[in-house]
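Quick one:
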Amino acid sequence: MELPELPLAGRSAVITGANQGLGRSIAEHFVRAGASVLITARGEALLAQTAAELRQYLCRPQQQVLARVADVSHERDCHATVVQAIAELENPCIVVNNAGVYGPFGLVEENDWGEWVKAVQINLFGTVLMCRAFLPHLRRARYGKIINLSGGGATAPLPRISSYAASKAAVVRFTETLAEETRDAGIDVNAVAPGALNTRLMQELLAAGPDKVGPALYEKMTQIHHSGGTPLEKGAQLCVFLASAASDGITGRLLSAVWDDWAHLPRHKDQLVNSDIYTLRRIIPEDRGGWKKCA
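Output:
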């Protein structure tokens, strides 16, 4: 399916971790699609620069690009961000929880525990806190779009990056759970797997070296780095779709920007309601033809 030229016209979004990498790409695609945005990050200088750059893409009257320094792991920052969005933006009905970190690399028993916890606070608690802050407004409006960024750790073990893997898996299950809590409130909640991105996080992983992250993962990421990785726009385009009216009623899903035919999901909306497609589920022997076929 093709989205209209400005599929997000008349809508506004809060996008966290938006001063660089995927977050910045999502913000740019949202602005180009007609949305006003409030972008947040912890780094003030880069955030201001990014906001200034994004304003060149404004394409309609009353459209805005606002910026706010905020740490999503702090409840007060999340609350203040939402208060500003409601006060200053037209129809703030979208939140994109993109802020995230890898956390410490290495064996879990050797990790700095404070850094391990901090990664969970940003990746998981930051996502939950932004949702908690925004949900009363979305419930009153009887409409909203919540988009949570997942990652490779959500669907497969990620040895030596355990805080990232655990927190991202939790984000997906939280997404599925929140989708059930809001199913009758007109709020769609989905998670996005953007692919292997050649961003700051990958640079941090490569800088840690094979001793910390393991030779296999280091080699895999080195190859992805040299090939350029997944284009940022793939994840950003999926986020535009999930923020638009075209995806209304699609909720509780983990969608891959690279592998899933997400643009055609609206035609399967009724089938998705009672399906476990695009979700995290437990596999039992019968799902694989029984123990004999598993052997």
